[in-house]
Amino acid sequence: MDLATHQRKLLSLFRSNYQAHPDDDSYIQRIARSKDLKEARGNIFLWRIWVLERTAPLTFALLKHRKLLNQAVTAFIKGHNISPFRETQAPEFLAMLSTHDDSLIASVAQFELALLNVKRGDPGFYVVHWAVEPYSILNSLAKGLPLKDKVPEVAHEIRVSGTLPTQFEIARVHCEHFQ
To answer: Where do the domains of the chain lie?
Structure first.
């Protein structure tokens, strides 16, 4: 086996994207069965948790509340070539979640990603659509408070830009303008 193939298999073993086959060389088979691989995967997972809890706190809190955190972080590890630089991990994680099937998770991730970009000097103007009232949700997530069971389903948008006095503003929108 050539070196590149060997390295791709090892990386895929770390990401849990590859299962050793009987025709793999003995080294790959031994690594696939090793306790060290399991421990390394656990360490990688815990490092991602540590970084994301600090760099994407709103989305992290929502995923934790919805009991989707482990699933989301596992999908992130499996599906992305994650840089070792923690500054790049949150934007990639938030971008992945920005299209989540759960519209609230998608909205929170889009908002947090836009805010992160603006805080890093991005001159862009972002608009994030919400199908629910975002004030109480963002307040609860930011302060670590329980989320309300029922949140009014009223269309809002959050505009994020470095040109705004507080870098973002929340506005209620009429349904015909919400798309």
So the answer is: 56-177
